[in-house]
Task: structure prediction
Amino acid sequence: MSKIEKEVTKYMITTDSGSAEALESNKNLVEIINEGSVQNNLLRLIQELGEYLTNDDEFIRAKATGLLSNTLTDCEQEAINESAVSVLVDFYCDRLTDKTCVQSLLDGLVALTTYKNFTGKNALSVSKRIFDNVNVQQFPQGTRNSAFKLFANLINRHATTLRSINNEFVFGFTKVLDGEKDPRNLMSAFQIMKSIVENFDISAHVEEIFEVTFCYFPVTFKPPPDDPYGITAEDLKMSLRECLASTPLFAKFALPLILEKLSSTSGSAKKDSMETLAACAPVYGATALLSSVNEIFNSLKLEVFHAIDEPLEDAAINCIRSVVAALNEVGLSTSEGDPTEKALKSLIDECATYLKDPDMKDSKQTGRILRAAASASEPACQYIVDAIIPLVLKQYRETTVATLRKSNVDIMIDLLEACKTLYGSATENENSKDFGFTSPLLQHKDRLFGIFENSLLASNEYNLLRLSGLTGLKLMIISKGFLDSNEVGLAIQSINKILLNEQDEELRAAALEALHAASYINSKYIIELTLPALINKLPETSTNSDVMSYLHVLHALRTICPVPAVYKHALPMLMEKFDTVCSKDTHPSYAHAIIDTILEILKTKVSEKHEDVTGGIDTIIPHIFSRVIQASLDVNTSIVLNSYILQKLSLIIITIFSKVDSATQKSFVDRTFKLFVNGELLEFNINSSAAEFKPLQITSPDSQKITCQLFAAVVCALRKDVVLPVPSIEDYLNELVTLALSSENETQITSASRIIGSLINKWKNNEALTEYVKSTSIVLQDAISQQASNSGNALEVYLWITKSLILRTHPLSYELTEKIIEWCGNNIAGPQAPQGFDILIGDDKLALNKNTFATTTILYKQRFFSFCLPKLVEGFKSAEKDVKPNYLIALSYLLKNVPKQILLTELPPLVPLLIESLNLSDATLKVSTLETFQLAVSEAADVVAPQVRKILPSLLALLEDTTHNPIRVRVAALTCLGQFPAYISKDSLSPHASYVLKQLKKPLDDKKRIVRKEAVDCRSKWYTIFN
Result:
C-alpha cells in the first residue's frame, strides 16, 4: 500500500472530517504530495480517491471532495501547470450539480483561483457554471461564504477577462447576493459589489444592483451577546456605505430614499442616513443634489437645531459641509448665477433670521451651520461672509448687552474657523503675498481685530466675551495670510497683558494656549516680547515674593519654551536666572522650581523628538559643571549644592547626554574624566584659585564629594559601545569599590555604587563579568557578615551589583539575592537589607534604566518576583517575631515595584501579609499596599471576600491614627474602602456595614478637605448595601 493510499484510507475511515485523526491524515497527505513531482502526486491522489468521488453515498462523495480541496489549498501551487489547473477546474465545475458536494467543490475552486496558472479562460468557465448550476442562496452560510470568496478572487485577479461577459456577470452576481442575511457574508458581498461597480459597466443593471444593496439600509444588525461573528453594526454600515457611494448612477434611486429615512424617528437610522449622504454627496455630484438640495438642507437644519444628542448634531453638520462642497462643481455656473449661492440662499437667509432674533438663543447652532457651509468651498465662503459678517458687525455695534455681543463675536469666530479650514493655517516665516487666494474676511480684518482686542482687554467685561475675543485674536494669528507681521506683534502684545497681569485662571490659561499656538507660527514676537516679559516677571529671590506668582510664570515658560525657535533663546535666559537665584537666595525652593522647569522643557522636547536637545552638550552641561564645581570650591555655601537641585541637574545631564551619538559621548566622557578624576579644571574653562578639585577622594571636603553625582550621571548614561578612558575595567571597578567602602559621604557612596552597577550591567564580556562579580561579592559578603564598620557601604555596593545582574537576568543575580534574603532573616545587615529590595527591583531615574541604555531582558521583574515571593513568604512564616517586619518590608518593596497584574495569580497567600504590612511605619509602603488591595478587590473579589472580616478593621485603623498616617495614606485607605461595595457581594459586607459607617465618622471630621471629600464618597457607597 502506497503512502498516499494509506493516508486516504485513514482519512476516509474517520467519522468526522474535523477530528484530530482526519486533520493529521490531511496534513500528512499534503507533505507527501509536496515531495517529488507535485503534479504527478496529485494525479495519484485523484486516482486513489476515484471510488470515493463516485460513490453512491453522498456523504462519502462530499468527504472525498473535501480531502482533495484541502490538499489543493495547502499543496505547492507553483508546481501545477496551466493544463493541469484547467483539468482540475473542469473536474470541479462538472460536479457542481451534486448539491451535497457544493461546499467542498467551492472550497476547491477558491483554492484554484489563487493559482498562478489559473487563467482568464478558467475564470469565465467557473463564473458561468456557478451562475448556471448553483443557486447560492439555497445553501448554508458556510457554503455561501465560500461562494463570495470565490467571486472576490475572480474579480481581484481576472476582472479584465470577466468584462467580456459584462452583463451576464453583473446580473449573475446580483442573483447570488439577493436575499443574503448573514453579516459575515454581507461584509464580503458589499466589498464585491463595490469592486463590480468600479470594474464593470453596470449601466444596464443599475436598478437591480441598487435594489439588492439598498434593501439593507439602514443597517439594524445587533450582534448577539456572545458575538460569535466579531462583526459590529458599524462595520456593516461602513461597508454598505462604501458600496452605495461607489457610483453616481445610484443617485436618482438613493437620494429620495435617504431623505425619507432622514425623517425616521430612530436616532440610529437618522445618523446612518446623514453619514451615508455625507459619503455619497461628493460622488453623486452637484447635478444630482441640486434638485433635492432644499429638502436636504431643511432636514439637516432640523437635526442641528433639535438634535436629541451631540453625535446626531455632529453628523448633520458634517453632512451639510459635504453637500455644500459637492455643489462646487466646475462648469455648472449659469446665467442665473453660481449654483452654490442659489442652493444656499434659503439656508443662509434662515440663519440670518435666527441671528436677528433679539435673544439670539439659537446662535450657537446657527454658527455651526455657517461654519460647516463656509468651510466647504470658496464660493460658499464668499457668499456666507458677504451675507453674515455685515449683519453681526452691525448687531455688535448696536448692542451693549455683553451676552449678545459674545453671541455676535462667536459667529465671527465660526467664520474665521471656516476660513482657516478652507485656506489653511499659517506657517513660520510665510509671506502672504505668495498665496493665490484672498480670504473674503480680509476686507473686514481691521474691524474684526478691533472688536476682538477690545473684547479681550475690557477688564470690566463679561469673562466669556473676553475669552471669545482672545480666541478671535488667536485665530487671526494662526490663519494663513491673514495678519501681517506688525499686526501679529500687536495681537501678541495684547495676549501678553492677559498672561502677565490677569487674575482669572481661565483667561490666563487661554492666553498661554494662544501664545503656544502662535510660537509655531511667528516666534519672532514670542522671543522679542513674551519671553523677556516672562523672565523679567521672575523675582531675583524668593524673599517677599508671591510663590504662586513665580509658579505661574514658570508654568508659562514650560509651555512655550519647548518650541525649537523659542528654546534656543529661552534656555540661556532661564539658566542665567537660575544662577542669579542660587547666588542670592537663601532658601532652595525657588531654585527647585526653576530647575524643575528646565528639566520639564527638555523632557517635552525629547518626547517630541526635537533634534536641538543634543546641542546642550556644548552649552548646558558645561555650564552646570562650571557652576556646581565653582560652588564646591567656594568657602561660602551655595544652594546649587542642595541635594534636590543636584539630583535635578544630574537628570538634565542624562536627558541631554543620552541623546548624543557614541562618538560625541566618547569625546565628552574623556573630558569628564580629566575634570573629575584628574582635577583638570581648565578642561571646562573653570577658573579657581582655591584648593584642588578631587571629588573622588575620601579626603576631599563634602562640598566636592557631592558633585560625584554629576560625574555618575555622565558615566551611567553611556551607550554600550563607548569605552571608558581607563586601562582596565576590572581595575577601575576595584577603585570605585574601594572608594565606596572607605567613604563616609552618602552621595559619594551611592554615586560610586551606581557607576559600579552600570558598568557591570553593560559589560559585554560575560566570562570576565562572572569572574569579577564572584570575587568581589565574596569580599563584600565578608564585610557585611562580620558587621564591619563599613558594612552599610558594602551592602549598598552589593545591592547595586545585584540589581545590575537582575536586569539582565544573569544566573548570579539569584545567588546574590538569596544572600540578601538570608540577611533579612538573621538581622545581620539590619533594616538596610529588606529596604534594599527597593534598589533591587525599583526604577532608578539616574542609572540602570532604558534612558541610560541598561541591558535588560524581557519580563525580568516577573522572573525576579517569582523567585523571591515564595522565599519571603516562607521566611516570614518561620521567622522570629522581631525579624518578621524585615520580611514584610522586603515583600512590600517587591509588591510596590512589580506590575500589579502579576500579583493576582499569587494573591491568596499574600492577603494576611498585606494586612500585616499596613502596620509598617513607612507611608510609601502603606500606600503601595493599599493600591494592591484596590487591585485585589476589583480584580479578585472572590479571594478578598472571605478575608473581609480581617481586612476592614486594618483599613479603618489607618483612619484613626492621623499622627502616623499622613494625608495620602488616609485618602488611599478611603479609596480602597470605597471599592468594596462595588465588587464584593452584599452578603459578605452586610454584617460589617454598620461598623464601617460608624468608623467613617472620624474621617468625615478630618482637618483636611481632601480626606473629608473622600470619606463622603466612601460613606455614600457603603450606604448602598442597605438599599
The radius of gyration is 38 Å. Residues 431-435 have pLDDT under 50 and may be disordered. Residues 267-290 form the longest helix (24 residues). Residues 809 and 860 are 6 Å apart (CA to CA).
